[in-house]
Design goal:
By secondary structure, the chain is mainly α. The chain is about 60% helix and about 5% strand. Strands 1-3-2 form a 3-stranded antiparallel beta sheet. The N terminus is likely disordered.
Length: about 210
């Protein structure tokens, strides 16, 4: 039985995850189809379940991996997540032309990553260079700054610094960042050292 294509936002990713897990368990000889493996791997990433994602990647037969480039592309995104490389996550997602069964999951993953990045920046910094902030959330600088100004953050256009609002519930208007069907363009990163510091702080917050 093929896995349903998720074309509508109302489809439950959690339900699809359970369906994929069941299909893998019930697969003849314990070997599922590339479609099931691809969706299951992407769904583990979406739910930030890196342990299950890693175990799944290890047990997918090498022949299936080598014959299905999209599986490798999904795992490339997973590697960026594992490294907490936020700009790399957006780049990896936008670099591949996903099939219709994987694309909705990757779009949801991109949006979830961006929303998480907004929250983490508000915890990690009292101020951050606008270009670095834009790279961390995977948006053009102008769009990123405009969006946070609408949320009560502050910006100094002379110094190109953004001053985050202290952590709280992200207001509804942030949703405009998370509904685009096309991957957001990723600007160049002008200050990799600062992004590395922020990534280290993210790791500290999550431990």
């Amino acid at each position: 039985m093929p896995v349903a294509v998720m074309a509508e936002s109302s489809v439950s990713f959690r339900r699809l995850l359970e369906q994929c897990e069941t299909q893998e368990l019930e697969a003849p000889g314990g070997i599922a189809t590339p479609l099931v493996y691809g969706q299951l791997l992407a769904l583990y990433l979406l739910h930030n379940d890196m342990n299950n994602a890693r175990y799944l990647w290890k047990r997918i037969p090498p022949a299936i991996k080598s014959a299905n480039a999209e599986l490798g592309a999904v795992w490339s995104v997973g590697q960026r997540i594992w490294q907490r490389d936020f700009p790399g996550i957006y780049t990896s997602i936008s670099a591949h032309q996903w099939t219709e069964t994987i694309q909705p999951i990757m779009e949801a993953l991109r949006d979830a990553t961006r929303k998480r990045a907004f929250g983490l920046v508000s915890q990690a910094y009292t101020s951050i260079v606008a270009d670095d902030f834009a790279a961390f959330v995977g948006l053009p600088v102008e769009e990123a700054v405009k969006g946070v100004l609408e949320q009560g953050w502050q910006a100094d256009f002379a110094t190109r610094m953004v001053m985050p609002k202290k952590p709280g519930v992200l207001e509804a208007s942030f949703n405009r960042f998370f509904t685009s069907s096309e991957p957001a363009p990723v600007p160049p990163i002008p200050n990799e050292q600062q992004l590395a510091r922020l990534t280290d702080y993210v790791a500290f917050l999550e431990n």
